[in-house]
Each structure stands twice: as C-alpha cells, then as structure tokens.
Amino acid sequence: MSNLQYIKGNILTLKGYPHILIHSCNCNGSWGGGIAYQMSMRYPHSERDYIQICEENGSNLLGKCALIPSYSEDNLIIACLFTSSLGGSGHGSKESILKYTKEALEDMYNQINVPDIATKYGAIEKLTKYKLEMPMINSGIFGVPWELTEQELLSFDGKMNFTVYQL
Ligand code: APR
Fold this sequence. Notes:
With 167 residues, this protein is of the alpha/beta class. It has a single domain (4-166), classed as Leucine Aminopeptidase, subunit E, domain 1. It has 4 helices and 6 strands; from the N terminus they run ββααββαβαβ. It has a 6-stranded mixed sheet with strand order 1-6-5-2-4-3, sandwiched between helices. Helix 1 (34-42) packs across helix 2 (44-57). The longest helix is centred in the middle third of the chain and has 19 residues, at 94-112.
C-alpha cells in the first residue's frame, strides 16, 4: 500500500477532522495565483503571516516549511513549502523546485514531530495526528509534471501519508 491517497474534489471544502493543508509557495510574498490566491481570499490573516515571513527571510526560506494557523478553522493549519524564490513565470527550474520540495517536506516532518509544538499553533491535538492534505502541488503555475512531485512524496513512505486532491 502506498503513502498517497487520491481524492477527487476541491481541497478547500470544510473538513470535520484536524488537517494540514500543504501547498507550494514562492519566497516573494505573493499568494497571487492558483490555490494560493484562493487561500488568500479564505485565510487573509494567514496570508499576512506568510507575507511577513517572506519579508523577513526572502530566499533563505528555500527548502523550508512555515506552519501557519488558519485563524478561521479550528482544525486547520497551513503548511507553506518554500520551493521557488519567485512565483508566476519567474519560478525556478523543475529540478530546483523538486529539490526544495523534498527539503521543505523534511523540514515540515521535523517541525510536526517537535514535542509540544501543537500549543504554538493553538492546535486541537498533536500535529502528528493531523491529516496531511495537498492539491497536486507544483503541477500548475510551477509547471512541474505531477509524476515527478509524486516520486518525491512516495519517498516519504513510512514517515508521512498524504492525501492528494485532484480537481
Ligand atoms: N482544490 C484542489 N486542487 C486545486 C485547487 C483546489 N481548490 N485549486 C487549484 N488546484 C490545483 C491545480 O489544478 C494544480 O493542479 O492545484 C495544483 C497546483 O496549482 P497552483 O496553485 O498553480 O500551484 P503550483 O503549481 O504548486 O505553483 C505554486 O502558484 O499557488 C501559487 O503562490 C503560489 O507561487 C506559487 C505557485
């Protein structure tokens, strides 16, 4: 059995269980397109946190993950994977996006497994109990064929399970 499960549908539908919404981000403080734009409409306070993190750290964020409260849904935390310095047509190469995706997921794994980290995010239980969900990251604006990102996700088998939403 694989550590990936696919579900058809919009990832932004409300859920009745604790979950982390993982998405791929630029370090330039822009949630201006794709899934990030939809999140900016739904979670403006989270976007504000994301922009501040980018302003303070810029491209030093590459290969890192920022966990951000959603502020509006008790059972949701947002995970920003910093995989490209710029968004839009200025995004990085597929090789660098994949490399930073893997590193950022490793960083996320390490953060989730810090004892007592849950209190920092007002989480409702241990972050290791949160379901890890994502759209088909990197395959839209970043233009990376999904199968390549899928390979990186499969390499976390035994450490993390992911639910992938397909429109
Ligand atoms: N539910 C499920 N999947 C979605 C949804 C949704 N509501 N909205 C978009 N998708 C899918 C797209 O069809 C695509 O397959 O998510 C995938 C990723 O799309 P993008 O948002 O274009 O993201 P990505 O390719 O990872 O590029 C990241 O775009 O999201 C912005 O600011 C972000 O600069 C970053 C870049």
